[in-house]
């Protein structure tokens, strides 16, 4: 056997996260995570709070631009700091360990990540089951059972192989883009034939109130959520300095164009009043546009939700993985499977939490908390980027976002956080209080004593490590 053969064999046997995500999987990862149930739910919220067809389309376009601004900021962060982990890593590198720990604390301990995953899982189960029982109500137990089955499939794929998880994401992304095209084409054809009556007087602002307009943006931004997930897997992206910015720009421009065109199609086939009365806008549209294929749309929406769920489970455990690697979480979660090269313990931790939330149904209140936490820590991360630029001007930045974009996005993020404090002070204040409970925990378990010895014994247990067949990375991947 030659020296090169020995080297190749040694490389295969070394336990570490492989760089297996190229440009296409990276772009599909973002698109597939962003395009979930939001575009099929949020149009109603955008319209009711904007007050007119024209203004709602403008809100959709501006939300896309704002999301692109945020994604570009994260492209700079992702190429400046080569660790995986997304929000957690950037807060750690720019503002220090306490904000980073609080991000982990909120995400796992107060269940904001499991809440979002539960919500998407339930949307998947609902769109699979309800068409078989229409027009009657579908059994809640059956919806939850199907939701758990979809969740189990996603977890199994992400535990089995990074390659299979990325292939699943690519496949589901093409399916959901097909669903969007299936909506866009009939709408554009009808519009070309002169069906423009719903766009007459499109910018009437009689029903617009300024205090509700921010809520329209909030609904739109919910549909664009997920543009930051690629940054959770930076260490697994091939040539990240090129592929992260390119994937972000291509995917967010694609999503924005598709979202605006989908809403144009909705308004071409439905009046604003009909859209507001519909609980499932895409299904109502399908009944209008192509009666014979109307049953296909709920199935495609379900697969769209499955793609968003897969993207979430692919990215989120990496934040927990990196946090454990930095000593902010039990060390078992910084280990990867010796053959599969997946962060198995971090993926598995989320599974029972999501299942419990699906069964108990305590989700919707936590969704509001997750939204507040998301925007607050994104604002801190981009603020940290600006501070880091000022303090370390010579730090290598292969991709640098224009300052005006970074400042605009950071100001808007803090405005969204401030608005939520104004519009819902009780729940948002409680969210702030729960976030701050992580401060004493950090000082007791990390700052002085790292983790408690009892936790160490439990989570560093050799038997648990052998059972899961996991170990620490043998080479540095950042």
Keywords:
478 residues, mainly alpha, Amino acid/polyamine transporter I, 21 helices, 2 strands, globular
Summarize the structure.
The chain has 478 residues and is an all-alpha fold. Helix content is 73%, strand content 1%.
Write structural notes for this entry.
By secondary structure, the protein is mainly α. 73% of the residues lie in helices and 1% in strands. The protein contains 21 helices and 2 strands. The chain has a two-stranded antiparallel sheet with strand order 1-2. Mean pLDDT is 82; it is low at 5-9.
Question: What is the helix fraction of residues, given as a range?
Answer: over 70%
Which homologous superfamily in CATH is the superfamily?
Amino acid/polyamine transporter I
The CA-CA distance between the termini, in Å, is 31 Å
Strand tally: 2
How many helices? The count is 21
- Give the name of the CATH architecture: Up-down Bundle
Pfam family, one: AA_permease_2
GO molecular function: L-amino acid transmembrane transporter activity
Protein name: Si:ch73-352p4.8
InterPro entries: AA/rel_permease1, AminoAcid_Transporter
Question: What's the helix and strand layout?
Answer:
Blueprint: H1 3-13, H2 23-34, H3 38-50, H4 53-80, H5 87-94, H6 97-109, H7 112-133, H8 140-160, H9 162-192, H10 213-223, H11 240-269, H12 272-277, H13 281-289, H14 296-325, E1 336-337, H15 344-360, H16 364-391, H17 403-423, H18 425-436, H19 438-448, H20 453-459, H21 462-468, E2 470-471
Antiparallel strand pairs: 1-2
Helix pairs in contact: 2-9, 2-11, 2-14, 3-4, 3-10, 4-10, 4-11, 4-17, 5-6, 5-16, 6-16, 7-8, 7-14, 7-15, 7-16, 8-9, 8-14, 8-15, 9-11, 9-14, 14-15, 16-17, 16-18, 17-18
């Amino acid at each position: 056997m030659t020296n090169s053969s020995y080297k190749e064999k040694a490389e295969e046997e070394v336990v570490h996260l492989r760089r297996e995500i190229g440009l296409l999987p990276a772009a599909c990862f973002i698109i597939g995570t962003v395009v979930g149930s939001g575009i099929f739910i949020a149009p109603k919220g955008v319209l009711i709070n904007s007050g007119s067809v024209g203004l709602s389309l403008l809100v959709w376009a501006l939300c896309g631009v704002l999301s692109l601004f945020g994604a570009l900021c994260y492209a700079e962060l992702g190429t400046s700091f080569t660790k995986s982990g997304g929000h957690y890593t950037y807060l750690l590198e720019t503002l220090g360990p306490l904000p980073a720990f609080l991000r982990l604390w909120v995400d796992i301990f107060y269940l904001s990540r499991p809440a979002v995953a539960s919500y998407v899982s339930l949307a998947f189960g609902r769109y699979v089951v309800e068409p078989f029982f229409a027009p009657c109500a579908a059994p809640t137990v059956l919806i939850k059972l199907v939701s758990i089955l979809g969740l189990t499939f996603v977890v199994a794929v992400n535990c089995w192989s990074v390659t299979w998880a990325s292939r699943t994401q690519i496949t589901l992304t093409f399916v959901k883009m097909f669903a969007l095209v299936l909506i866009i084409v009939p709408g554009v054809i009808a519009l070309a034939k002169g069906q423009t009556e719903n766009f007459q007087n499109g910018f009437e602002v009689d029903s617009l109130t300024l205090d509700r307009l921010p809520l329209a943006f909030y609904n739109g931004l919910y549909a664009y959520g997920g543009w930051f997930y690629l940054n959770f897997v930076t260490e697994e992206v091939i040539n990240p300095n090129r592929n992260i910015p390119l994937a972000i720009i291509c995917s967010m421009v694609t999503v924005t164009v598709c979202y605006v065109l989908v809403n144009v199609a909705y308004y071409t086939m439905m009046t604003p009043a009909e859209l507001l009365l519909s609980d499932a806008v895409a299904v109502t549209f399908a009944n209008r546009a192509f009666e014979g294929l109307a049953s296909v749309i709920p199935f495609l929406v379900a697969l769209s939700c499955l793609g968003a769920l897969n993207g979430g489970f692919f990215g989120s455990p990496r934040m927990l993985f990196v946090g454990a690697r930095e000593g902010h979480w039990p060390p078992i979660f910084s280990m990867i499977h010796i053959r599969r090269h997946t962060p198995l313990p971090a993926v598995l931790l989320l599974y029972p939490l999501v299942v419990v939330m699906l069964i108990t149904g305590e989700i919707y209140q936590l969704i509001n908390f997750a939204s507040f936490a998301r925007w607050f820590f994104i604002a801190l991360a981009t603020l940290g980027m600006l501070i880091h630029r000022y303090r370390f001007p010579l730090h290598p930045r292969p991709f640098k976002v224009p300052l005006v974009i970074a400042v605009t996005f950071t100001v808007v993020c803090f405005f969204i956080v401030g608005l939520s404090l104004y519009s819902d002070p009780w729940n948002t204040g409680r969210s702030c209080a729960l976030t701050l409970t992580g401060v004493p925990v950090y000082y007791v378990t990390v700052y002085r004593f790292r983790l408690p010895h009892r936790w160490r014994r439990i989570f560093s247990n050799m038997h648990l490590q052998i059972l899961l067949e996991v170990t620490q990375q043998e080479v540095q991947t950042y």
